[in-house]
Amino acid sequence: xxDPLRFGFSGVSIWLDIEGSEKGGxxxxxxxxxxxxxxxxxxxxxxxxxxxxxxxxxxxxxxxFCGDVRTHFLGRGWPHLQPIGVLSDVELEGVNGGRMDMRWxxxxxxxxxxxxxxxx
Length: 120
What we know:
- By secondary structure, the chain is an alpha+beta fold.
- It contains three helices and four strands; from the N terminus they run E-H-E-H-E-E-H.
- It is 32% helix and 26% strand.
- The longest helix has 19 residues, at 58-76.
- The radius of gyration is 17 Å and the shape is globular.
């Protein structure tokens, strides 16, 4: 058995929208259909690019992302990252110490020098 999710969400996260995640889109409908069948509350479909930023305020993170990061990636896109693993799991509030009802899939990507430079 695995340890229950005990990550205390904190700080600022950057979510990237997924095509079709807007209301009425294919991805949006799939999330809502699955959530309905599983008795869960749906959230907006997204890719978490960075999470747990605690050294910047929300305003500072927005300014940096909308300035430096957006400018950097507009012409070239996000640096290539190689997928190296997939994890899917579920947490249910009150079960094995769970804090919330949540299902997720996580794709682990290897980093690169270009990606690390962007994060700096």
